[in-house]
Each structure stands twice: as structure tokens, then as C-alpha cells.
Amino acid sequence: MSRNVSTTRRSVVTIAAWGIGFLIFFPILWTILTSFKTEGEAIASPPSFLFFDWTLDSYREVNSRSDYPRHFWNSVVISFGSTFLGLLIAIPAAWAMAFVPGKRTKDVLMWMLSTKMMPSVGVLIPMYLMFRDFGLLDTRTGLVIVLTLINLPIIVWMLYTYFREIPGEILEAARMDGASLRSELIYVLTPMAVPGIASTLLLNVILSWNEAFWTLNLTAANAAPLTAFIASYSSPEGLFYAKLSAASTMAIAPILILGWFSQKQLVRGLTFGAVK
Amino acid sequence: MGSQTQSKADQPWRRWIAERTPQLILVPTIGATLIYVVGFSLWTFWLSLSTSTILPDPTFAGFHEYVALWKSKRWIVSFQNLFLFGSLYVAGALFVGTLLAILIDQRVRFEAVWRTIYLYPLAISFIVTGTVWRWIFHPQTGVELALKDLGWIGAKFDWITDRDLAIYVVVITGIWHASGFAMALILAGLRAVDGDLVKAAQIDGASMARTYRKVILPVIWPIFLAVAIVLLQFAIKTYDLVVALTQGGPGVSTTVPAIVVYDLMFQRGQIAQGAAAAVMILVALAAVLIPYTLFMIWRRRQEGNQHG
Asked: How many CB pairs lie under 8 A apart between chains A and B?
């Protein structure tokens, strides 16, 4: 709703927004700052806020000691791999639901979306047993499959909400001109849906990047992504705050940067398409 | 030649495929979801009725493991924690989210920036969130130390090491993580409220606080309900946040059901009891989702009647 607001009040409100924003962002900021300190400075009392000797030592140490690049690469492969596989399956499905809806399409869609609410722990045991039998434990392939499965409903749903905004007449015109289904999907629909597909991709990469239930339970040293790496780093009552901060910063930086440059997509994605 | 293609296209099975393509395309997606959700849940249920220990064992044992589960102290603590955490987390996130949404609704400068910053916690994994907040709550490194540095020698803030208070540490961290989500949805709701309604209230001389409380917020209650449902299912799923923040401790004071399943399965080799615990979590989720779904269907019917 829009109201006339006086300039003074607007300034007060803006300052309040600054304050609260800073408060909310503080834990993240503090982690980032600490990652540039030495271990001694990280636990110094009183803590130094900005005035300390900035150093990259923690980053160097984390990189050299703990196979950080491999975990990072695992995260990239798993999150993008599952996202692309998911899109490949979901784009035709969302097309069918959005442009050739049947009587039950809406119900099917709502059912699919509701399955996203199912706690993964409910199927942990069978999943683990199957992974063991197929030799998929601690492999990136296995994780790509699981993450595709759990995120498929959300991908279909997001794509559906975007596809619904594309006028169906354009697709019909292409069909009249003799375009086959495949060329209709590839040459007509996909280019128009690029913004929607991009935000779906962003959301899904974030979800898979952050996923920790399956990565903690199904991986060990080999295929562990960053989430599992940080969890292992912090478990023995970690006293190495600077290094822990460096590892955490490296894990969240890609998301923060990606999110900053696509704010609209971030908001729409994280609210599952509810906020446009 | 024209007639040849015609006859080819006229073959019944080809036409059948052409007409059914949209439905056929859905088969892999629906099939995969069905197998994953329904198939694997039933498999879990079946395991929970067996005598499986470290390896699956198909011998039927009835509901024996459920009885054993509900007798274990740890499971009861974890379920109590789920109720306590779930209700405070949902209420807290809704409250803070509403305040943030109202704040941003006042036409703040750089609105998009604030919206993004308030949403940032949601984009950060529970693992990193838990790791950072454990540090903030730890007496020797976080808030307590900062207060002492500021000169308050007797400062004490050691909830995370206190059996009775550690669960509130999880609640606060959860609220930090989820408030932005509530804010974004509530803000969208506020923006969609009919402007005339608001003007009418203001002409009647209602203050801003009163306008929000009596006029605007009651209109958007379905959004509160939807946000609450989404957050409740997050609460039921909670696993990685607690693992990173408190590891379920001190003792078992912050254990949640998902951690118990993990523990039974991997640490104690009791697959059947772990499966029984997993089934109970699914039941908890159903207890939230089924009433909500029925209520939404009922409401849609009511609206349909009114309009029709």
C-alpha cells in the first residue's frame, strides 16, 4: 500500500532499516572480517573490529591443509549437475502443465509441490541401503541423483509459474507453422523463458549448494562438498576461528555475490515464486 | 507422396502418441517423485515393522520397535524439543518478519537493498549459520566476552552450555535464518492490500499502528498461515542447524527427531527402530499438512459458493 510519508519520517525509517540491516548482517560480516585475521587476533580481547593487520594466512592454510579445492569442486559439480539434470527433466514437464493442462494438472502440481515438504530423514534408510548396494556411497554421481530427485518438484513448480506468464498464442502460432514439438520447445519456448529458467537455476543451485542432510549422511572424504567439509572442520570444538571463518566465507561468498547481482531472482526464488 | 505421409500420420498408434505427448512427458517426473516419496516411505514403514538391526532383516516384528522407541527418554526429549522449537521458531519468525515488512513498507530508501540483506540469512546454509552462531553464543568467544570487554565484568550469557536454555539458542538462530522469508511474503501481502481500505481507515483518524493492527494485518491472515506451514515443515526437518550449532547437546538437551534417526541408524545399528522414528516424523508432518490441505479445500469451496 502506498501512503504519503513526510521526509523526516522517511529518514527515520531509513536509519532504522540501516540499523536492523546491519544487525542482521553482522554475524556474516564478522565471519568475513575474522577470516582476514590471525588466529591470535581472532580471539583477542577486546576484539579488533576493522583495525588489525589484514592477512590471507587463514585462506592459505585452509587451502593447503584440507583439500579445500576438492570440496569446492564437489560443491560445484553436485549443485550444477543436479540443477541441469533437473531442468532437463522439468522443462518438458512444466511445458506440458502450463500449455496443455488437463483436468487434474493443478492437483498434480500441488501434490508434487507438497512432496517437497517431506523430511528427507523419512527416506534416509532405504536410500542409504540402495546407495550401498549400488556402490553410490560417497560418489558425486549418487549425490547428483538424490539432489535432482528432492528438488525436481520445486524446479517444475518454479518453471510452471514462469511459463504461465508466456502467452500461449506464440507457441500455437509456431505449431501452426509446422514446428515439431522438439523445435517448439527448443527454439520458441526456451528463448522466451530464459529469465525464468535463470532464476530457477539460481534457486536450485543455492538449495543444492546449501544442502547438508544428504551430503552429511551419504558422503565421506571423497565426494564431500563444502557443507560437509565445514561441519567436519568445526566438530572437535574448533578453536581455530580464523580458519573456520575463512572456510565459511569461501562457502558463502559465491551465494552472496550471485544473490547480490540477481536480487530480483533471489527474492522470487527463495520465496518459491510467491513474491514477484 | 502426400497421401503416403497422410496415411502414416493416420496410423492409430502415432496419433495416440501425438495426442498423449503432453501427458507422456509428465511420466518421468511424476514417476520419479512417486517412487521417491511414496515408494521409499512405504519401504521405511516396512523396515520399521521388521527385526532389522545392522542389516535389513525381513522378519516381521509388528509394532515392537515403536513401543521401544516411545519408551526411550532420548526420543521423548527430541519430540518435546520439536514442539518447543517449532512453535517458538514459527511465532518468532512471523513476529520479526512482520515488523521488518512494516518497516520496509514505509517507503524506505534503497528498498531492494534491504530486502536482499534481510533475505541473505536464508541463502546461507544451516551448517555455516550454526557454525557462526555457536561462536556468538559461546561464553569464551561471543556475546559474553564482548560484554566483559565493554566493562561489565559480571556479564553472563552461557545459554549454549546450559541444558535448560540451549534449545532457545537454536530458536534464536532459527529466527535469524527465517525472518527474511516471512518478511518477503508478508511485504508482498501488504502491498496487495486495497489502498481504499487503508485510506478509509486513515480518514477515520486511525493511527498508523492501529491501521496496521486492525485493518491491514487481519486482511492478509492467509499469508501468515501459509508462511507458518512452510516454517513448520522446516522445523520438522531440522537437522543440519542443530548438528552445526549444538550437536544435540549439552547431553541430549537439544536433540531433534532427525538426529535420533541418524544416531539409531549409523551409531547404534538399529535400522528397524530408526525406521520407526522416521515414520513418526512423517506422521508429524502429515499432522500439519493434512488439516491445512482440508482447510484450504473447504475455503475454496466456500468462496466458490459465494461467487456462484
From this structure: 260
